[in-house]
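job 3f2a | input accepted
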Amino acid sequence: MQFEKIVGQQELKKHFVAEINSGNIAHARLFYGKAGYGTLPLAIAFAAYLFCENKQALDSCGTCPSCLKVNKLQHPDLHFSFPTVQADHKVSTPLLPHWREQIFEASYFTEIDWLRRIDPKERNMIISVHESQEIIRKLNLKSYEGGYKAMIVWLPETMNTSAANKLLKILEEPTPKTIFILVAESHETILRTILSRTQMVRVPKIDDDELKRYLRTSLQLTPATSDRVIIQADGDFIQARSALEHQEASDVNRNWFVQLMRVSYRKDVIGMLDWAEEISTATKDRQKIFLEYALHMVRQSILKNYTGDQLTRLTTDEEDFLSKFARFITGNNLRDFMQSFSDSHYHLERNANSKILFTNISFQVMRYIHAA
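job 3f2a | predicted structure (372 res):
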């Protein structure tokens, strides 16, 4: 994978190229940010440039033997570690074929995407002490090609305490020319002893103009379609991809949101139950997309209240609705709205009963609106 294949993040790419060319490379770093911002692709592209035998000014060459091996995710000095379901696999190595398939199919993916690939039952995943021992074993081996060794650890926040403690020494004093890249959604749940041994790199959301350019040039989207996708994506390529795949659902999402707010404001219990009944018949993916849309509308409401129309990202129909509704989202209930929709998204991913879940949402929304 090359930097040019990654959407946006131009400043980070330039920084990484300059760092590698200087030879002053931090031995352990933590890339943190939403998966849709490109954290994992950036880590792989960093390793590709590190190994490249014919480095270009801004990217790896893509054609030398090392680049070809990295592109196939089969470079002998590039290692991966990721969470597994312990009942099936104590370590990640047996799952490497599935890992490669996932990255080849969609290099921007979430924890739940990976879980569904390896476990239909969707059980809990962790990085265990067994995996830490495997990491240490691999990195104590000599480099196959005589240069750097790189270990990319995906979702280090899933490490249990024993696993994290096992890695402390090698993180602090790795073998020569060993590079650790930890790729996390957030650094807040990672042990401080791990964080203290890494150089932290925040991967920001993708710039709107860069994402728009990709959508129009690489995916050949019309300006109207790309503009609509950008509004929903909020700098997240996974969200952009989801919005694109469900373009026809945009009007449905808006209608569901408007209906929910209206019946909840009127305290129309029958209407609230009817709304929950209707949305509960949709597929789980459609329900999750609606919750993501609801979070978007809540965020836009608070932006409208505090900045007018300067920072909002709305279609004309959404703007018309929020011109009347936004005043009901205030500092008194913003956190409650966000928590309710976020928690519901989490529970849907874990097979919550959708009818009960959306009925609960409608009653929560009723309380929050009247708490404004």
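job 3f2a | The mean pLDDT is 91.
job 3f2a | closed
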